[in-house]
């Protein structure tokens, strides 16, 4: 079964997913005139805007999406990419992040445009822009099922597996007991609804990301003279120049793109579910923040892990996943490094488990609004978190890769068709900025689709 999954994954990613991701990243960057580069100043301004009382603002929505992006993919995923694809995989992670940020902008802007009203907040995402933008409910239902399987189940196994492995290795406790504890803690948060989830994310995510960046900067300063050689190793390996094997180039590209997507989620269709909940004056603002999220995740946090591993010199020791990251940091700063990674992986993985659950709930609400189904999904989440303590890492990755690939294809097919809406919205946003105004959007500005837009009076 494991071999069949690997064959399907290789075929799907080699011939379909990577081609679509690269096409969309380059096409959207061109059509949006490099919005992810030229609007960085606006990204910084938007993130501090206040939403008003009892409303979920830009930063909280950004934090929810970042808590999903900044997870085990940044620690264990980067390590696995280097383990399988060599140092060159890091280069292709960077490339996909720089251009893929444009894809993240498109999907997040569409999620805001077609968002719906809920009792406590807005909600939306790919399933909603597929139904109301493309008028294909079947496509929305298909996506909702795929993302619920990917994030609500398979991805939870990855997060839990990595978390339990790290804690079991550090604390010498059976992974099953750790899994049971994490399961209970998860259920406490998710039964509190989106407000508790967004509040939790806005508190935990900045703390964990800043702490990890600081420790990585310390490692870089300790090895400052080795930085040029490390960069050369990454670049040479990216094009197969350091390896004798003829497939080294292809493996570096595939692992870089796959693990980069697992980490920053650009084009995958997950982060738009978080982008839709924000109360903001213009859809483009959340598009800009989600592009910033891709940069934060891959260019900053993933690079931290890559530098820690490559500067240790033990990246080819045969270790994989979070264990490779842990021993690499211990190589630099001693036993304290292992303790830090244990704490980091707890915050990273646990916050991601919470965000993943939210993505699943949002899409179950798309299929059916019955609380009985949502409560059932909450129980299933607890079961999958517990299951993560009992499976192997590579089996878990194979399951996630396959479903994630299909989900990404469905989302990219939708946003390619709907992208002209984002091109118009960006022009509208920039025109208002040039007039010295704080950009505001009203659905009357797009009369041809006004009937499909529920919010934005």
Explained architecture:
Helix content is 77%, strand content 1%. The protein is an all-alpha fold and 457 residues long. A two-stranded antiparallel sheet has the order 1-2. Helix 6 crosses helix 18.
Structural class: mainly alpha
Average of the residue pLDDT scores: 80
State the helix count. Answer: 18
Question: Which residues form runs of ≥5 with pLDDT under 50?
Answer: none
Write the SSE topology:
Layout: H1 2-31, H2 35-38, H3 40-46, H4 58-69, H5 72-85, H6 88-113, E1 116-117, E2 122-123, H7 126-132, H8 137-171, H9 175-190, H10 193-222, H11 227-238, H12 248-264, H13 271-275, H14 283-312, H15 321-333, H16 335-367, H17 371-387, H18 393-434
Antiparallel strand pairs: 1-2
Helix pairs in contact: 1-6, 1-18, 3-14, 4-10, 4-14, 4-16, 5-12, 5-14, 5-15, 6-11, 6-12, 6-14, 6-18, 7-8, 8-9, 8-15, 8-16, 8-17, 8-18, 9-16, 9-17, 10-14, 10-16, 14-15, 15-16, 16-17
Question: Features of this protein?
Answer:
single chain; 457 residues; two-stranded antiparallel sheet; 2 strands; 77% helix
Short description:
This protein is mainly alpha-helical.
């Amino acid at each position: 079964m494991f071999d069949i999954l690997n064959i399907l994954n290789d075929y799907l990613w080699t011939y379909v997913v990577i081609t679509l991701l690269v096409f969309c990243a380059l096409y959207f960057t061109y059509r949006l005139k490099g919005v992810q580069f030229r609007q960085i100043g606006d990204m910084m301004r938007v993130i501090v805007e206040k939403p008003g009382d009892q409303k979920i603002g830009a930063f909280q929505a950004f934090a929810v999406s970042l808590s999903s992006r900044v997870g085990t993919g940044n620690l264990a995923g980067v390590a696995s990419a280097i383990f399988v694809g060599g140092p060159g995989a890091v280069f292709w992670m960077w490339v996909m992040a720089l251009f893929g940020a444009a894809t993240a902008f498109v999907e997040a802007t569409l999620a805001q445009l077609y968002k719906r009203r809920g009792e406590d907040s807005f909600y939306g995402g790919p399933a909603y822009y597929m139904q109301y933008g493309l008028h294909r409910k079947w496509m929305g239902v298909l996506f909702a099922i795929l993302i619920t399987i990917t994030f609500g189940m398979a991805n939870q196994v990855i997060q839990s597996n990595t978390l339990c492995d790290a804690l079991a290795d550090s604390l010498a406790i059976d992974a099953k007991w750790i899994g049971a504890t994490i399961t209970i803690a998860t259920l406490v948060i998710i039964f509190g609804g989106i407000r508790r989830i967004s509040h939790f994310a806005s508190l935990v995510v900045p703390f964990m990301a800043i702490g990890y960046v600081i420790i990585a900067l310390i490692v870089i300063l300790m090895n400052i003279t080795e930085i040029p050689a490390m960069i050369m190793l990454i670049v040479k390996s990216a094009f197969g120049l350091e390896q004798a094997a003829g497939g080294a180039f292809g493996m570096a590209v595939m692992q870089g793109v796959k693990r980069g997507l697992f980490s920053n989620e650009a084009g995958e269709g997950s982060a738009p579910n978080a982008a839709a909940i924000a109360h903001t004056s213009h859809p483009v603002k959340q598009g800009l923040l989600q592009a910033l999220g891709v940069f934060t995740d891959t260019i900053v946090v993933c690079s931290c892990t890559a530098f820690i591993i490559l500067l240790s010199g033990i990246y080819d020791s045969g270790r994989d996943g979070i264990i490779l990251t842990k021993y690499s940091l211990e190589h630099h700063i001693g036993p304290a490094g292992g303790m830090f990674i244990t704490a980091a992986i707890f915050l990273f993985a646990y916050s991601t488990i919470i965000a993943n659950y939210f993505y699943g709930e949002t899409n179950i609400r798309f299929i059916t609004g019955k609380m009985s189904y949502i409560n059932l999904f909450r129980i299933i989440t607890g079961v999958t978190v517990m299951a993560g303590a009992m499976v192997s890492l590579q089996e878990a990755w194979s399951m996630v890769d396959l479903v994630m690939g299909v989900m990404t294809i469905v989302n990219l097919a939708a946003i390619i068709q709907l992208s002209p809406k984002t091109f118009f919205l960006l022009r509208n946003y920039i025109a208002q900025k040039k007039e010295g105004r704080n950009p505001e959007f009203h659905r009357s500005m797009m009369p041809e689709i006004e009937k499909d837009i529920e919010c934005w009076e």
